[in-house]
Fold:
Amino acid sequence: MSILNTPVSIYGRKIKNRIVFHPMEGCDGTRNGGIDELTRRRYLRFARSGAGIIWFEATAVCAEGRANPRQLYLNEETKSGYAELLREMREIAVNECGFAPAIIVQLTHSGRFSKPDGTPEPIVAYRNSHWEKGKENQPYTVASDEYCNDISNKYAVAAKLAKEVGFDGIDVKCCHGYLFNEFLSAFEREGRYGGSLENRAKLYLDCIDSVKNAVGNEVFVTTRLNACDCFPYPYGYGVNAENEIDLTETKIIINELKKRGVELINLTLGNPYLIPHFNRPCINAPEDGKIGMERIYKVTNELKTAFPDIRFIMSGLSFEGENALEYAAHAIENGVTDFAGFGRMTFAYPDFYRDYLKNGKLDKNKVCLKCSKCTELMRNASVAGCPVRDAETYMPYYRRDVLKK
Ligand SMILES: Cc1cc2nc3c(=O)[nH]c(=O)nc-3n(C[C@H](O)[C@H](O)[C@H](O)COP(=O)(O)O)c2cc1C
Structure:
């Protein structure tokens, strides 16, 4: 188990241990995208965790690309709140854990899932009948090449702000069906962003370049990447004609990332809107969570084997509950991953790693129950948290926004 507490060097800096707090949207920002009370509460709890990396949730680069009216949005109006929160987080972490974690912001454009005012206003890479079944009446806007050409400027602006407010790293998000991820499967789109892999990955890689140019070497550039979408061709990438996982294109993309100096990749897969149990195995799902864990393990292993010098973060681990840290240590020991990422567990039990260090085990009455109530809150336009383990704060929202509906 001591491997969890072993430091790793990335981007010329030392990460204190192998525990990563995954990006987890709380949908609790201010209307203009700033840090509100619940946002602050969540991140200050995370700051006490002793994790080596804290990965800030999806944070929009433009108003029209927000996934909900309370999604974080880093801009001139909101930046001071971020700077203050980061300062507080580092102070708490140093005081209580003896070190400051690396703090990364996940920059995003929600694309097909944009709902800036609470109703869907999808901006899509292409029309997708697999996805749009039953939702044909939404006002789909296919992102024009001109619109795409300008996105890298939006990323550059947000990246400069991220640097100014004090983030250590910037994640150019490319997962879960959001804009850049959707472009990877724009096989049938015409023009400069569709067709060949080079074209489909262009928007994503251009934005990596643009963020790098904007921040120089002081802030590192990383990415949360869908290893595969697990949607059938031609609606998903990372799958073959038989609809099996095929990581050939993913490896080409990772090579491109490597050329651009990316040393850390946070791996995930699937689409949480249609097949949520693929990226977060859970109870009451169409497949046993163990199958989901095996899929994630296998995919992470294949990519780590192909790219031994890239540092990977594995996902889905909250499913392992009380045994999650043993599972993670085993995966690291076996060379499957370098870091263990935790999502739902951080909402349920932000102190889990400190408890482990102190007591040699996790408290079974505090671990994530993989019940998906955090997701239910989010999907019902509420604030996301754990209504079971953090009941005093989140059960009232669950009653009001989920049960009463
Ligand atoms: C409520 C909720 C919010 C999430 N928000 C994000 C997000 O902002 N960005 C992201 O890349 N993934 C997001 N995820 C996915 C998690 O980061 C993570 O990949 C997933 O929960 C699986 O890990 P786990 O088993 O440790 O929970 C979210 C998941 C949930 C349940």
Residues 183 and 204 are 8 Å apart (CA to CA). Residues 22-25, 57-58, 106, 175, 224, 268, 279-280, 315-319, 342-345, 374-375, 378, 384 surround flavin mononucleotide (CB under 6 Å). The chain has a mean pLDDT of 97.
